[in-house]
Design goal:
About 35% of the residues lie in helices and about 15% in strands. The chain is α+β, with helices and mostly antiparallel strands and about 325 residues long. Strand 6 (about 105-110) and strand 7 form a beta hairpin.
Length: about 325
């Protein structure tokens, strides 16, 4: 009838919390009808609720008029819940929490070969023990009205422009299409003109002539504007999707968001408008309509550095039942 979360808010968005069963959650399982019984409502508690819960046993008995048991008619043994071992490194989780304290932010650390999530932090968070004991209406309102969204797991549900982290995917798209080689030089004078629009580099003085390696090292915006224009949005989008950007990755947590990798077809369908070349240019530096989750960025980075091997992010390392 109770649950203790000794790490409190440090693991809130990973573990989730348990709370009393609502009428809509009744399934016919007699366990759920016990007064005070709690089930998983968020995080790992939801994904592994049935596994952790086990199954209740039952005994059907015959009683006399005084309520005294005469005999047992049927007996079914219950099944104890299993033990779940996660991939989280608690020490690393605490380090990331400390780094992000006071911020509205997210941090994800992933094993680049196995896809195990070693740390996943979304700040600010909440204390799951408060849900276990029951929140007052004022406490609940404070949580849902907080503009920094402490109830949302930003790591999997937050959708943000990736910015310069996307430049590596942009570079791969351009190299694969053959519009540049690693040694192709572009001249950055601090801005680039396209029609009557001007697109600025973060370095207003410019970077001069840069090749692919120098453009990545110095994060030269003009270089990526130019190669995006040459590559085209269709090829850029195809490369982004190969890295899992813009779509749910299937992590074992509820509430994972998708994001958006824009294409001309998407814009016509949603905005009833034609795609513009300027929109391709700003997509090249991870801006515009492009939206990804922090988890998607972590997986993208993992696949970039592990030799191009696809990984599936996950939090469950081992499920051990009582029978071994």
């Amino acid at each position: 009838q109770t649950r203790s979360y000794p790490q409190g808010s440090e693991l809130a968005h990973v573990l989730g919390y348990v709370a009393p069963v609502s009428p809509s959650e009744l399934t016919g399982d007699p366990l759920l009808e016990l007064p005070g019984f709690r089930i998983g409502k968020a995080g790992v508690e939801t994904i592994h609720d049935l596994t952790l819960r086990g199954k209740g046993g039952s005994s059907q008995v015959e009683v006399n008029a005084y309520g005294r048991v005469i005999r047992e008619l049927e007996h079914r043994e219950g099944q104890p819940g299993a033990e779940i071992k996660l991939t989280i490194d608690l020490g690393l989780q605490r380090v990331v929490n400390k780094l992000l304290k006071g911020e509205s932010a997210s941090g994800v650390v992933i094993d680049v070969h196995s896809g195990e999530i070693l740390a996943m932090v979304s700040t600010p968070a909440y204390d799951p023990n408060a849900f276990n004991k029951g929140l007052s209406s004022s406490e609940w309102k404070a949580l849902i009205n907080d503009p920094r969204a402490p109830l949302n797991n930003k790591s999997i549900a937050g959708r943000y422009s990736p910015g310069s982290a996307f430049k590596m995917v942009m570079l791969l798209a351009a190299l694969e299409k053959g519009v540049i080689t690693p040694d192709s030089l572009m001249f950055c004078r601090g801005s680039m003109e396209l029609g009557d629009a001007e697109f600025h580099c973060w370095n207003k003085h410019g970077h001069g002539a840069v090749n692919a390696r120098q453009a990545i090292t110095q994060s030269c915006d003009v270089y990526f504007y130019e190669i995006a224009k040459r590559t085209g949005i269709v090829h850029i989008a195809a490369m982004a999707k190969r890295f899992g950007l813009g779509t749910p990755l299937g992590i074992d947590l509820p509430g994972e968001g998708g994001g958006l990798v824009p294409t001309p077809k998407w814009k016509r369908a949603v905005m009833k408008a034609a795609w513009q070349r300027g929109e391709t240019v700003i997509t090249g530096i991870g801006q515009g309509y492009l939206l990804v989750t922090p988890l998607q960025l972590a997986v993208m980075m993992a696949e970039l550095v592990n030799g191009g091997v696809s990984v599936t992010p996950h939090l469950t390392r081992k499920v051990t039942h009582k029978n071994g």
